[in-house]
Amino acid sequence: MTYISVNHMAQALHLAFDVDIIASLYDKPTLVIDTSFGSTVGVVGHAPLYEADSRSHVELLQPHIASVVEESGLKPADIQRVVVGTGPAPFTGLRAGIVAARAFALATGAQLVGMNVLEAQSTWNRLEIANMGQYYTDSAYPNSAYPNSTAAQTYHFTLAVNDARRKQLYYALYGQGGEEILAMNIASATDIAQGVREVLGKFGFVQGDSARSVDTAGADGFGADSASGLSGGASSVAGAGGSYVVDIIGHGAMRYESAWADLPVGEVREESVLHDAGAAGLAIFASCALMREFQGKDVSTDPLYLRRPDVTIPAPNKHILGQTSISLRVGGQVENHAQTQNPEKQNVKTQVGGQVGDSGERKG
């Protein structure tokens, strides 16, 4: 099994994470479990084990966990941290991974941390581009260092997606500093594209344009840099007259590619940080979780389903004419309890001594 040492991993991810974060993943052996799309399990530093068939989660998840722990040279008791993917994803597959992670942590006493897959997807994409020197910052990446100065000044939005089935996608839009611009949600690809276009309109984007120059007046509010270390806000690109594109990454990105036709698309990648980025992908995912924990953000293992449940509480049956929600049966007939409290005001039929009479005119 492929192994990446802590020093090599820290070097590979240094543009995104501090070396102390990476070292912590090795000092406290960390198991990653995710069933947001198929199932992925692995110990940080080693290549993950991926199963694409979501129907086999229950049967294969536990054997796969045992396998990756053993192949990493560890025992279950050696695992000190479990990072589990919390979605967003459909209910059936997602809960299998979360339950397995909770059970493992409970049995071993390991720390349990939850991480959403979309933010990790965004971080991976930004790290990939940063490593290729395509981000623009006037300090870290001067134009003169690259033959293509336009590419060096390109600002990358990341639209992270995950297939939600039923012709829908889970999604969130991030700026290149890691800031969340469109909050995590679920919608059709067409509706997602429309929402992204509305955001880009603030930057002067016109439908049908490809890579677009940023409008300084519209860039306010999206310049906050992330603590992840990937620098450069939209405002800095606007001030420099750079262009921008939207990278779309995740399961479903290619499937609905036609929906992105009117966006200034950079890359469309049907890939996952967890099983397409190898051992580095596990480290990125786990590091994102630790970074969120350090920042005081939510790292619970509550599942992110986002879609409303199919099962709903049925509406109450319609009342029979003359009845309310509280009725009493007296002598074989239904008597309205609310009405019999005021017999003077109501003519309520009751059974008395085998005869039916009005409550207001009782027959002896």
How would you describe this protein?
It is globular and about 55 Å long. It folds into two domains: 6-117 and 274-306, ATPase, nucleotide binding domain (Nucleotidyltransferase, domain 5); 119-214 and 234-271, Nucleotidyltransferase, domain 5 (2-Layer Sandwich). The chain has 364 residues and is α/β, with parallel strands linked by helices. The chain has helices at residues 6-12, 19-27, 57-71, 91-108, 117-131, 149-152, 189-201, 234-240, 278-294, 337-340; strands at residues 30-34, 39-43, 49-51, 81-85, 111-115, 155-165, 168-174, 180-187, 212-213, 243-250, 265-269, 327-330, 333-336, 349-352, 355-358. A hairpin with a 4-residue loop joins β1 (30-34) and β2. Strands 6, 7, 8, 9, 10 and 11 form a six-stranded mixed sheet that branches. The chain has a five-stranded mixed sheet with strand order 3-2-1-4-5, with helices on both faces. A two-stranded antiparallel sheet has the order 12-13. It has ten helices and 15 strands.
Annotated CATH architecture of the largest domain: 2-Layer Sandwich
The average pLDDT is 79
How many strands appear in the DSSP assignment? Answer: 15
Largest sheet: 6 strands, mixed
Helix content: 25-40%
The total number of structural domains is: 2
Distance between the termini: 95 Å
Q: Counting H and I runs of at least 4 residues, what is the number of helices?
A: 10
What is the name of the CATH class of the largest domain?
Alpha Beta
CATH superfamily of the largest domain: ATPase, nucleotide binding domain
Uncertain runs: 134-152, 213-241, 337-341, 343-354, 359-364
Say what the CATH topology of the largest domain is: Nucleotidyltransferase, domain 5
Order of helices and strands: HHEEEHEHEHHEEEHEHEEHEEHEE
